[in-house]
Amino acid sequence: MKGTRRTPRWGHSHISRQLAPVQIGLISDTHGHIDERILHHFSACDEIWHAGDIGDFKVTNALAEVAPLVAVHGNIDDQLMRRDFPEHQHIERGGCKIWMTHIGGRPGRYASGIRSGLHQYAPDIFICGHSHLLIVKKDASWGGLYMNPGAAGRQGFHRMRTIMRFSLEGGNVLNPEVIELGTR
Questions:
Q1: How far is the C-alpha of 140 from the C-alpha of 83, rounded, in Å?
Q2: What does DSSP say about strands 88-93 and 69-71: parallel, antiparallel, or unpaired?
Q3: Closest listed residue to residue 108, CA positions, set 142, 80, 78
Q4: Cβ atoms within 10 Å of 18's Cβ, excluding its own
Q5: Would the pLDDT of 10 be above 90?
Q6: Count of alpha carbons within 13 Å of 80, Cβ hemisphere only?
Q7: CATH superfamily of this structure's domain 20-183
Q8: How many CB atoms lie within 10 A of CB 12?
Q9: pTM of the model
Q10: Which has the least CB within 10 A, 31, 56, 85, 145?
């Protein structure tokens, strides 16, 4: 089927980059934690993207029940998780080129190899997790939007658990919102 993308173990996404708008739920650093509030906030999403440190298949199973899942593994994820979810995802949705990985750094302090990859792949949006720092920022050094949804899990140094939702349409990020889930 044209516009269908296989997402490892979790079925098919029927979202084509020509269809618009595409509602995205973005989450990272769950470290094995999932709760009904997360699922509720993602219930109207066309896809859910997880930027790594998943922690347990119960997280991906629950998210995939809500919407098609696109995910990358993180540094805490075991070999079974790494088998199903790659280190990098390069996808196109809503007219946007997206690169998602777990360890990416942040504007001005990108992880090794990321800056050259940003220039090589020229994504419109670069998504990562790992730092547990919620940051959404246009980065003039490579011309795209940097997004880190913070951390939704209960482990780590962050105080507030966060996720994000936004729409993609015509090559634009529309209606971005941060959802605070409460303290960890």
A1: 35
A2: unpaired
A3: 142
A4: 10
A5: no
A6: 5
A7: Metallo-dependent phosphatases (3.60.21.10)
A8: 12
A9: 0.89
A10: 56
> What distance in Å separates the CA atoms of residue 161 and residue 149, rounded to the nearest whole number?
9
Give which of 73, 16, 6, 84 is closest to 46, Cα–Cα: 16
Which residue from 137, 172, 155, 165 is spatially nearest to 27, judged by alpha carbons?
Answer: 165
Is 5's pLDDT higher than 50? no
Residue 93 contacts by C-beta under 8 Å, 6 or more apart in sequence?
15, 17, 22, 24, 47, 168
Name the residue type at position 118. L
Minimum mean pLDDT range among 19-23, 57-61, 75-79, 168-172: 19-23
Backbone angles phi, psi at 95, to 5 degrees: 80, 10
